[in-house]
Amino acid sequence: MKNDSREIATHKSILLTRKESHCQGAKLRKQTPRGAHAEWSASDVRQNPVNLLFEQGKGRISSLLPVRYQRMKVSPFTFLRGSAVVMAKDLASTPASGIDVQSCGDCHLANFGSYSSPEGVPVFDINDFDETLKAPFEWDVKRLGTSLVLAGQEGGLSSKATKDLATSMSLSYCEQMTRLAAMTPLQIWSERIDLTAAIVGFEDPKVRTRAEKLLSERIEAAKGHFGLIASDGKNPEFKEKPPLVMRLPEQEETIRLAFSRYVETQPLERAILLRRYTLKDVIFKVVGIGSVGTFCAIGLFSTADGETMLLQIKEAQMSVLQTDTLTSPFANQGERVVTGQRIMQAVSDTFLGWTHSNASISSDTPDLSGSGRQFYVRRVKDSRLAAVGSDVAQDGLADYAKLCGRTLARAHARSGNASMISGYLGKGASFASAISDFSETYADQTHKDWKTFCSAVENGELN
Fold first, then answer.
1. 450 in Cβ contact with 53 (< 8 Å)
2. Beta strand pairing status for 100-103 and 245-246?
3. What is the pLDDT of residues 126-146, one digit of tens each?
4. CB 450 within 8 Å of CB 143
5. How far, in Å, CA of 406 to CA of 400, rounded?
6. Spatial contact of 442 and 43, defined as CB atoms under 8 Å apart
7. C-alpha angle with apex 434: 431 to 437, nearest 5 degrees?
8. Nearest residue to 416 (alpha-carbon basis) of 140, 147, 113
């Protein structure tokens, strides 16, 4: 894969007008009809999902794998959340549109959320980029559609209602891409989704009222550093909450060195700000479902006056999308994650950066070791604010599905050719119908994989 900045600098002559791009997108339907995206069937050579998860676990902290597997056992939806590697392999065997974008790589409804912009405005966006890489645009849409079907089933919705969620999400994606295709690249790049305004547009008045109340409460609660800090005013420190938030004295030096390397490699304007803080404390934190088992810690930085700032350092491993045909141009996986986030998010974290530990991993690396690992760094997200959308989704999944579709289109339009994608999607509902069919069929596949996985865990094949 070529570096995007080089493409812009050396291939100006191949720039297409919106009309030309739209026509090229429409022509691609002849190679891969929109209806072809409905196709899914497990081939005879399909890899066993348990084997894929077992191999992935080899690069993780073994003592945390039982936590990951227990979280995945809860339901087919939680299994989907933790098994991005399985679906990535399956998507690679499906018909491709021929239009690549910067893909999230793990695009399910729980990886969308809200956070505060630097101006304090709550924005809604994709908020997880651990698997980001260039890939066909429809892969994210298919994974999001499948997650909506599974969430609807878990919520007790009828078969028709669950399938309608994938349809409405896809239609929203198509409508937004058509709107974005008429905008200039600069306008697309500046487009952001104000969550307060988005909530006003919810069709269900009860869901709208509840969302407004939740958002107001959690913006206020976010001022309290998430309940992680104990302080006498001058000596702030973390509070342990075992077994998911705890100190690991044997790993503290690794974490501190990685944070130090991060600070030393920041651009001058950010380094000036960071040097006004000192790293006072570190703590290990288990996060998510798919990420459980990766090395993750939080650093408590403080000024001389006891004013605090929290930064998270999180291990970045190879993307599940990476194959012989889809490769990362970055030597450091942390840089891959950070670059993907900056491309896809309208409002990115000021402190995004990457770093690494100071040694190579060897076969005798002790459990929980940070040696030889690659990381990215960001401000700690307020999980309660981030969960406003998913909490609302419990009662208002239909409105949430449309919001996610709209958000994904905006994220894809930043790196992809919006006019070409719009030309491929067309004006009808062919693409949305295909996505809903695929989502329903692949949700059935996920149920089967989940049962196989649960049996493997119970039989001790995964531990």
1. no
2. unpaired
3. 999 999 999 999 999 999 999
4. no
5. 10
6. no
7. 150
8. 140
What does 227-280 look like in DSSP terms, one character per residue? G-EE-SSSS-EEPPBTTTEE--GGGHHHHHHHHHHHHHTS-HHHHHHHTT-EEE
Q: Which helix (H) or strand (E) holds 296?
A: strand 296-302
Of the two residues 28 and 363, the one the predictor is more confident about is: 28
pLDDT score, position 111: 93
Mean pLDDT of 13-17: 83
Could you give the count of Cα atoms lying within 13 Å of 439 in the half-sphere of its Cβ?
37
- Do 90 and 442 meet the contact criterion of CB atoms below 8 Å apart? yes
Tokens 């001389």 correspond to 304
pLDDT surpasses 60 at 222: no
Selection from 333, 265, 321 nearest residue 295 by Cα = 333
Q: Could you give the CA distance from residue 278 to residue 309 in angstroms, rounded to a whole number?
A: 10
Tokens of 308: 């605090």
Neighbours of 397 (CB within 10 A): 26
| Among 344, 281, 342, 289, CA closest to 311 | 281
